[in-house]
Design a protein that fits this description.
The protein is mostly helical. The chain contains 5 helices and 3 strands. A 3-stranded antiparallel beta sheet has the order 1-3-2. The longest helix has 33 residues.
Length: 153
């Protein structure tokens, strides 16, 4: 059996189920009321409701012949608490990044080497007026006096 937190995140992974939860946050509703905004059948919405119920996100009660669905906040609170630990990590990481950026902005600019082109992507500007050196032939192999492989002496 999967744990409660995994079931909650699994249920929240579907946009239809998130929309159903958003609607139930406004108040209890039956299946017909929940199905109205969707282009799907009531049985399809009922399958979504069963997933939400298994995750503990809703409870379903009978009121006469209608099944009323009610949002349960505790599993959402638990998921939010779990996420909050990671939020603190990211906030701290962003604060460290902000401090680094502020330090870099406050530091004097690095000196510019006049021998380098102003724009390193500009191939037309060369550091030396003479241009790049001409390609040279590779050095010849030393003559050892031995015949070349594949030839006769």
């Amino acid at each position: 059996m999967e744990d409660q937190l995994s079931a909650v995140f699994g249920a929240l992974a579907d946009p239809t189920r998130r929309a159903i939860l958003a609607r139930l946050a406004e108040g209890d509703a039956n299946v017909a009321e929940l199905a109205a905004p969707f282009a799907m059948s009531q049985p399809a919405v009922s399958r979504h409701l069963k997933v939400l119920e298994r995750a503990g996100l809703i409870t379903r009660t009978r009121r006469g012949t209608a099944r009323i669905n009610h949002l349960e906040a505790d599993p959402l609170r638990d998921a939010t608490a779990w996420l909050a630990r990671y939020r603190a990590y990211w906030v701290e990481s962003h604060e460290r990044l902000d401090e680094l950026l502020a330090a870099l902005r406050a530091a004097p600019p690095a000196p510019v080497d006049p021998a380098l082109p102003a724009d390193p992507t500009d191939a037309t500007e060369a550091p030396d007026a003479a241009g790049p050196p001409e390609p040279t032939e590779p050095p010849a192999a030393p003559d050892t006096g031995a015949p070349l492989e594949g030839t006769t002496p």
